[in-house]
Amino acid sequence: SNVPLAGSALFDEHGVIAECPPGIPQCQPMTGRIAEAGVPPATPLTGQTTIAFASTGDNPNSGVAIANPGTGTATITFQLLDTTGTTAGPSVTKTLAANNHTAFFINQLFPNLGSFFVGTVRITSDIPVVSTALLFEHDGQFSTFPVFPLQ
């Protein structure tokens, strides 16, 4: 769908949905706000990387939100690396239409990681895209992670 870039990204983990709008995302269930984090403006890049956590149970999961501010469809490749810089499985490629955005948890992009993974995810695209990364705890708390340009 054509969602304006001023919209938001949604993460759905075990039936709990967290909305991540530009600016200050909040996790606010009916019982009240439990987390809030700032998301800085992002520069469109063809290569970027961020921290990756993936787990099952009560461990944290990280997610990435990607937006394509361009006029053409972006082909985006996600490559997972472990803490030694070794590739942790095959890369995943997704397409993203112009002026659209999407979001994924790391364990949704790479479902065969096992019960716990720590490393980085390298994001490359044929046209510049913007991204942000978030860490979600099992109790609903979350924080943002920086995204670094690839050289």
Description:
The protein is mainly beta and 151 residues long. It has one domain: Hypothetical Protein Tm1070, Chain: A. It is 3% helix and 53% strand. The protein has one helix and twelve strands. The protein has one helix spanning 106-109; strands at residues 9-13, 16-20, 26-27, 35-36, 45-55, 61-68, 74-82, 92-96, 100-105, 116-136, 142-145, 148-149. Strands 5, 6, 7, 8, 9, 10, 11 and 12 form an eight-stranded antiparallel β-sheet that branches. It has a two-stranded antiparallel ribbon with strand order 1-2. Strands 3-4 form a two-stranded antiparallel ribbon. It is globular and about 40 Å long. The termini are far apart. Mean pLDDT is 78; it is low at 1-25.
DSSP summary: helix tally: 1
Return the CATH topology: Hypothetical Protein Tm1070, Chain: A
| CATH homologous superfamily grouping | TM1070-like
Low-pLDDT windows of residues? 1-25
Q: In oligomeric terms, what are we looking at?
A: single chain
The average pLDDT is 78
Strand content: over 45%
Number of strands: 12
Output the radius of gyration.
Answer: 15 Å
CATH class: Mainly Beta
Secondary-structure-based class equals: mainly beta
What profile does the largest beta sheet have? 8 strands, antiparallel
Distance between the termini: 32 Å
